[in-house]
């Protein structure tokens, strides 16, 4: 017989004090029948919730015959709790409804089901054996592409495990999104790991699979876990905290916002986070949404930013960094960081690192290199340097750290840094400020100047009557001797020094100083190093400028010196691209290759001038040659000359700033040096074709020599231009003449070195019809290497 509830009224009291608990106790074992009589569904599979109306999130599981249920929207409870929610009444009213339902004869309670004999691990393994990898229609509808074991009916099989790694069951997700647990599954504390981070320092726990997979898209660094539902968040979080006591645990909450109703997802997440000193990341939305919804609507980048920004601890803790100044000023030690570093997200650790640098960091757009403003210039910092600083912060805070924790903090911080601007070309930096060549004024430093280089010296006003002769006698003596007392050449050397001082790489020129040993070339290089600053100068070779891997070594410097170069012969593609302002490929070790412009002045110093095979004009337009011919006798050389000139550097700088107040004058002087006789003489020494063109006269029209070819007979160097070139090469003992095709291509550039134009056209009539006629003739000075007996003097 079923129990019968009998009670009496006592005055104004409707039930005894123990009425509710008595009804609850007597109803245990009969809840399926009671709820059916109250028109409340008792389906074991997930379906619509009779209390909140949520779809596919309600399940009646009747644990221990107590009428228990679960809804991911409105929570879980016992049978009496469910009656209260459905009827929107209090406990006493719900108990009265249950008592009335039980007043009728009740069926015999179902005997407690025996524990399944089938081992759940074996059962899941059998299901998995029947499954095959595939794409779930459910995940596709969620905007996710990820293979999972698929059953024959198109359902997804999600295997669950406990903290010890044992299989505890599985969840089956049908194509329409309805879910059920495989019979015998132990859900409490079971989960599925959908992404294993490099280290378990950050654990992100989501309710369902789709949310977990979405979080994986924008937080691939973390270990991502699906806890199946909101009710299992707390048990799973506790398992994770027990296994990983130092990990940062983040609950990726569902925002179950609904006016006038509790936010179940948020509440469950906060409860779980509080229990394990973790964090909550809640999608900010005016409507119900989880991180999968946010990911689909806004994309991975916006979702990543929103996820990091939304993180909070339920107690409302904020990231507070307290810095303790060390004697000396710049070095900082972290006295306290709240919350602890190992409880922070990557973005928050990045904020700590940024605070360590007082916020004075920016990033170069091309190289992705972080720069730090030190009060004078923006100094590049490698990722390794930043990582070492972050590690020191951990050490100061006495918190254990991992390589991944350090790296993720640096990488995340870089994403939020401002991009560096462009340095104004009218500014010249000094240790105590900048000189504006446009206004002629000196002013303090400003971080927005984006200076990358500055002189190590302070700027100061000149002394009364200051001149190079009287106040920089050592420099003046070197200068006059190097130029052989040529006043015009002295001005051109000074213009080259100004180009280095002002870092006018944008003039698209490079300097080449050549001459015998002891002529002052090395002193020129040392003076340029002083003007640019030793920290801004790098030594390289022509080969380094042409190799992307070696080019990485010159990035970040304002002066590239190629000292004591051996004889170079090549097309000069690297130096042409760098000085031409083109982006060049950089392939640094342990970093991704990139392209950037190298804002540096290039200075080559050699005993023998470089030889370039490129005669298109690209090198010639950029090359400024200085030939120092005066050798200082051994007994007159001063080994301390460079040190003495360094003591005069302030005078030299002031003179350059005054002398070239109009910077274009310096540029014009360098162009003048390009066309100088000494520069042409050097080019003739290094380029046989340029030297050959020195023996030619240019006509206005194409009425000169026939170009010809090597196969024409008889060999007539006074009639055929190409024969004349071959005769020149032979007479000078030079092998490997250029081909006829290359001869035609290179002649215009070689002739332009003399300010002459090379032209040719095809003859259309007369005895030379069909032949190519040039506009050049042999000069009178060819007789030195072209005997009159060679060829035919009368043109036949």
TrEMBL record:
Report the CDD domains cross-referenced here: TOPRIM_primases
Cross-referenced InterPro entries: DNA_primase/NTPase_C, DNA_primase_Znf_CHC2, Helicase_SF3_DNA-vir, NrS-1_pol-like_helicase, ORF904-like_C, P-loop_NTPase, Phage/plasmid_primase_P4_C, Phage_T7_Gp4_N
Could you tell me which PANTHER family the record lists for this protein? ATP BINDING PROTEIN-RELATED, SF3 HELICASE DOMAIN-CONTAINING PROTEIN
A single BP term in Gene Ontology: DNA replication, synthesis of primer
Q: What is this protein called?
A: DNA primase
Task: Report the source organism.
Answer: Klebsiella oxytoca
Provide any one GO MF term from the record: ATP binding
Q: Which GO terms describe its cellular component?
A: DNA-directed RNA polymerase complex; primosome complex
Where does the SF3 helicase domain lie?
488-641
Keywords associated with the record = ATP-binding, DNA replication, DNA-directed RNA polymerase, Helicase, Hydrolase, Nucleotide-binding, Nucleotidyltransferase, Primosome, Transcription, Transferase
User: Which SUPFAM superfamilies does this one have?
Assistant: P-loop containing nucleoside triphosphate hydrolases, Winged helix' DNA-binding domain, Zinc beta-ribbon
């Amino acid at each position: 017989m079923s129990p019968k509830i009998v009670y009496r009224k006592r005055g104004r009291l409707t039930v005894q004090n123990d009425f509710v608990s008595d009804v609850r106790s007597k109803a245990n074992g009969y809840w399926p029948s009671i709820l059916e009589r109250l028109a409340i569904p008792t389906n074991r599979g997930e379906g619509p919730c009779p209390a909140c109306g949520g779809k596919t999130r309600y399940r009646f599981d009747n644990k221990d015959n107590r009428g228990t249920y679960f809804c991911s929207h409105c929570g879980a409870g016992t049978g009496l709790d469910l009656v209260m929610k459905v009827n929107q009444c209090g406990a006493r009213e719900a108990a009265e409804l249950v008592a009335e339902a039980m007043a009728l004869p009740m069926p015999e309670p179902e005997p407690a089901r025996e524990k399944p004999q089938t081992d759940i691990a074996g059962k899941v393994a059998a299901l998995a054996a029947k499954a095959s990898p595939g794409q779930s229609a459910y995940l596709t509808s969620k905007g996710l592409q990820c293979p999972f074991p698929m059953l024959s009916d198109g359902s997804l099989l999600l295997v669950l495990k406990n903290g010890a790694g044992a299989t505890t069951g599985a969840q089956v997700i049908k194509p329409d999104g309805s879910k059920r647990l495989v019979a015998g599954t132990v859900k409490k504390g079971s989960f599925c790991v959908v992404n294993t981070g490099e280290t378990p320092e950050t654990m992100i726990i989501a309710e369902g699979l789709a949310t977990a997979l979405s979080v994986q898209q924008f937080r691939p660094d973390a270990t991502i876990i699906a806890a199946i539902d909101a009710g299992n968040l707390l048990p799973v979080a506790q398992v994770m905290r027990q296994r990983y006591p130092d990990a940062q645990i983040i609950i990726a909450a569902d925002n179950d916002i609904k006016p006038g109703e509790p936010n179940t997802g948020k509440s469950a997440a906060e409860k779980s986070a509080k229990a394990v000193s973790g964090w909550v990341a809640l999608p900010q939305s005016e409507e119900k949404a989880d991180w999968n919804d946010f990911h689909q609507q806004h994309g991975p980048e916006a979702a990543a930013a929103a996820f990091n920004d939304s993180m909070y601890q339920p107690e409302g803790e904020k990231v507070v960094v307290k810095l303790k100044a060390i004697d000396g000023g710049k070095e900082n030690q972290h006295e306290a960081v709240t919350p602890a570093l190992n409880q922070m997200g990557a973005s928050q650790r990045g904020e700590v690192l940024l605070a360590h640098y007082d916020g004075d960091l920016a990033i170069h757009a091309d190289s992705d290199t972080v720069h730090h403003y030190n009060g004078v210039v923006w100094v590049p910092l490698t990722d390794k340097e930043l990582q070492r600083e972050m590690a020191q912060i951990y050490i100061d805070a006495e918190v254990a750290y991992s390589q991944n924790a350090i790296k993720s903090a640096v990488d995340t911080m870089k994403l939020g840094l401002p991009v560096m601007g462009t340095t104004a070309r009218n500014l010249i930096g000094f240790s105590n400020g900048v000189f504006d060549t446009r206004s002629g004024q000196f002013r303090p430093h400003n971080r927005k100047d984006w200076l990358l280089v500055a002189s190590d010296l302070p700027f100061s006003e000149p002394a009364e009557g200051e001149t190079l002769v009287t106040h920089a006698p050592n420099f003046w003596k070197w200068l006059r001797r190097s130029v052989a007392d040529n006043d015009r050449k002295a001005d051109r050397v000074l213009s080259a020094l100004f180009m280095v001082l002002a870092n006018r790489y944008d003039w698209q020129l490079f300097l080449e100083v050549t001459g015998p040993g002891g002529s002052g070339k090395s002193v020129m290089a040392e003076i340029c190093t002083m003007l640019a600053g030793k920290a801004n100068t790098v030594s390289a070779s022509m080969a380094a400028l042409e190799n992307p891997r070696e080019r990485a070594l010159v990035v970040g410097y304002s002066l590239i010196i190629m000292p004591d170069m051996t004889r170079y012969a090549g097309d000069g593609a690297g130096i042409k691209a760098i000085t031409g302002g083109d982006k060049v490929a950089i392939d640094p070790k342990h970093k991704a290759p990139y392209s950037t412009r190298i804002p540096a002045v290039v200075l080559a110093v050699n005993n023998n001038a470089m030889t370039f095979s490129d005669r298109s004009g690209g090198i010639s337009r950029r090359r400024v040659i200085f030939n120092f011919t005066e050798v200082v006798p051994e007994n007159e050389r001063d080994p301390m000359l460079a040190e003495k000139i360094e003591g005069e550097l302030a005078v030299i700088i002031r003179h350059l700033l005054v002398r070239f107040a109009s910077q274009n004058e310096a540029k014009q002087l360098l162009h003048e040096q390009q066309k100088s006789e000494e520069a042409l003489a050097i080019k003739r020494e290094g380029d046989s074709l340029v030297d050959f063109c020195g023996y030619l006269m240019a006509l206005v029209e194409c009425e000169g020599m026939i170009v010809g070819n090597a196969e024409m007979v008889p060999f007539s160097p006074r009639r055929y231009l190409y024969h004349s070139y071959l005769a020149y090469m032979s007479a000078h003992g030079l092998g490997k003449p250029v081909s006829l095709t290359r001869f035609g291509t290179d002649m215009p550039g070689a002739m332009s070195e003399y300010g002459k134009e090379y032209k040719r056209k095809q003859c259309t009539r007369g005895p030379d019809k069909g032949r190519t006629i040039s506009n050049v003739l042999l000069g009178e000075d060819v007789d030195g290497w072209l005997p009159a007996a060679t060829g035919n003097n009368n043109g036949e």
